[in-house]
Design goal:
With 401 residues, the chain is of the alpha/beta class. The chain folds into 2 domains: 257 residues, 3-Layer(aba) Sandwich (Aspartate Aminotransferase, domain 2), CATH 3.40.640.10; 132 residues, Aspartate Aminotransferase, domain 1 (Alpha-Beta Complex). Helices cover 40% and strands 14% of the residues. The chain has 16 helices and 12 strands. The strands form 2 sheets. Strands 1-7-6-5-4-2-3 form a 7-stranded mixed β-sheet, with helices on both faces. Strand 2, helix 6 and strand 3 form a beta-alpha-beta unit. Helix 2 packs antiparallel against helix 11 and helix 14 packs across helix 16. The longest helix has 19 residues. The chain starts with 8 loop residues before the first helix and ends with a helix.
C-alpha cells in the first residue's frame, strides 16, 4: 500500500480554521479513501536491510516503530499543528502525559519553574510533588497577576507553566503580558489550553512557546477516548521533546488518534454552540447562587481580558454554593445533567472538584487555589439549554437555593 506524501504547507497555510479542522494533515493511500485511514500496526517492514539501517540512522524517510511514528497519529499531529498555528505537534496517550512530557523534557536538577496556583489537581501534583523529587524547584503564584511571575523569576528559572482558563476556578491569565515577561528573560512558557482549544484561543498568537492539551476534552468532545498533544517549534518538538517521548513511551494509539481526527471535524461547530448554551445557563444561574465564575459574563472580574483573548467563552464554568453538603445535595437533585468529573463532552456534566478532581490536593492548597468546599464545575453540552435550565432549577430548589 503506497501512501501519498504530506500536504504542501504553502497550500495549507492559506486554509481557514474550519477547513484545517476537516482536511489538515490528510494523507491518502493508493485506494483514495476519503476518511483518514486507520493504521493498526506496531511495526513496519523494509524492502532490504539497508533501508532499515538508513531509516534508523535518519538518512531515509519512513516509519520504523509505532512508538515513534504512525501514519494515523501523524495526520492528527499535523492537523492540530495547523489549527494551533504551530510548526509541529507531538501527540501523547493522555492530557497528563502531554503536561508531564512538556515539562520534564526540558528541565533538569537545579532548574526552577513558576506555575499558576489554579490548576487541574494532577498538574499541581506535577509541580508540587513530582518536580521536587528531581531537584526542580517550583514557585506557585497567582497567575491572574503578571507581576507575580515577574517577581518570582530567579536566574535558574526555565519555565512558566499555567492554564487559562484555569481548572476549575476559571482564572484568566494575561497571555500577552506573561509571555512577554518570559521572552525578555529567555524563559519558555508552557500553556495548558484544554478548556478553550485552538478553536477559541491560540496562545502562540500572544507569544506562548509551547501549548499542551488534553485532547480527551473538546478535541474528541464526545467522551470516547483519551489523548494529549504538545505544540511548539519544530526545533523544540524534534530536538527537545522527541528524545524524551521516544524513550519514555507516552504514545497515542492509532485508534484514539483516528477518533480525535473525527472529533476535530466538528470542533468549531460544537464548541461555539456549547459556548452559547453555557452563556444561557450561566445567565440563569447568576443571582440564584452565591457566586458565579463564568468568563463570558460581565460579572467575571476578568471578563474583558477573557473576551480579548478568546473568540467565545467556552462550555465550562464554575459557581459556588454554601458548602460541600449543599453542593452534593444540588448534584444529587440533577436528573438530566450527569455527575461526572470529565469535561469537554457533548453531554452536560457537573462535578464537585474538592471531592473528586482535586481530592488528592491538600485542603490548605485547595483553599489557596480557590477550590472551596462549595465550588461546582459545570460542562454545558449540546442539549437544549431550556432543558438544562429546568433541570438546574429543580436541583437548586431541592438544595435550598
Amino acid at each position: 500500500m503506497k501512501r501519498t506524501t504530506g500536504q504542501d504547507r504553502s497550500v495549507t497555510a492559506h486554509w481557514r480554521p474550519a477547513t484545517r479542522a476537516v482536511r489538515g494533515g490528510t494523507a491518502r493511500t493508493e485506494y483514495g479513501e476519503t476518511s483518514e485511514a486507520l493504521f493498526l500496526t506496531s511495526g513496519y517492514a523494509y524492502d532490504c536491510a539497508g533501508d532499515a539501517a538508513a531509516r534508523f540512522a535518519g538518512e531515509q524517510a519512513g516509519m520504523t516503530y509505532s512508538r515513534l511514528q504512525n501514519p494515523t497519529v501523524e495526520m492528527l499531529e499535523q492537523r492540530i499543528a495547523l489549527l494551533e498555528g504551530a510548526e509541529a505537534c507531538r501527540a501523547t496517550a493522555t492530557g497528563m502525559a502531554a503536561m508531564t512530557a512538556a515539562l520534564l523534557c526540558q528541565l533538569e536538577t537545579g532548574d526552577h519553574v513558576v506555575a499558576g496556583r489554579a490548576a487541574f489537581g494532577s498538574c499541581r501534583w506535577l509541580t508540587d510533588t513530582l518536580l521536587p523529587k528531581f531537584g526542580i524547584a517550583t514557585t506557585i503564584v497567582d497567575a491572574r497577576d503578571p507581576q507575580a511571575f515577574f517577581d518570582a523569576v530567579r536566574p535558574e528559572t526555565k519555565v512558566f507553566f499555567f492554564e487559562t482558563p484555569a481548572n476549575p476556578t476559571m482564572d484568566i491569565v494575561d497571555l500577552a503580558a506573561v509571555c512577554a515577561i518570559a521572552r525578555e528573560r529567555g524563559i519558555r512558557t508552557v500553556v495548558d489550553n484544554a478548556f478553550a482549544t485552538p478553536a477559541l484561543q491560540r496562545p502562540m498568537e500572544w507569544g506562548a512557546d509551547i501549548v499542551a492539551y488534553s485532547a480527551t476534552k473538546m478535541m474528541d468532545g464526545q467522551g470516547r477516548v483519551l489523548a494529549g498533544a504538545i505544540c511548539g517549534t519544530e526545533d523544540f518538538i524534534l530536538n527537545t521533546l522527541l528524545p524524551f517521548h521516544r524513550n519514555t513511551g507516552p504514545t497515542l494509539s492509532a485508534f484514539n488518534a483516528w477518533v480525535v481526527l473525527k472529533g476535530l471535524e466538528t470542533l468549531d461547530l460544537r464548541i461555539r454552540r456549547q459556548s452559547e448554551n453555557a452563556l444561557a445557563v450561566g445567565r440563569f444561574l447568576e443571582g440564584r447562587v452565591p457566586r458565579m465564575l463564568h468568563p463570558g459574563l460581565p460579572s467575571h472580574p476578568q471578563h474583558n481580558l477573557a473576551m480579548r483573548q478568546m473568540d467565545a467563552c467556552g462550555p465550562i464554568f464554575a459557581f459556588e454554593v454554601a458548602d460541600r453538603t449543599q453542593a452534593h445535595a444540588l448534584l444529587d437533585g440533577l436528573g438530566l445533567i450527569d455527575i461526572s468529573n470529565n469535561i469537554g463532552d457533548s453531554r452536560s456534566l457537573m462535578t464537585h472538584p474538592s471531592s473528586t478532581t482535586h481530592s488528592g490536593v491538600a485542603a490548605e492548597k485547595r483553599e489557596e487555589m480557590g477550590v472551596t468546599e462549595g465550588l461546582l464545575r459545570l460542562n454545558v453540552g449540546l442539549e437544549d439549554p431550556a432543558d438544562l435550565i429546568e433541570d438546574l432549577g429543580s436541583a437548586l430548589a431541592g438544595a435550598g437555593l
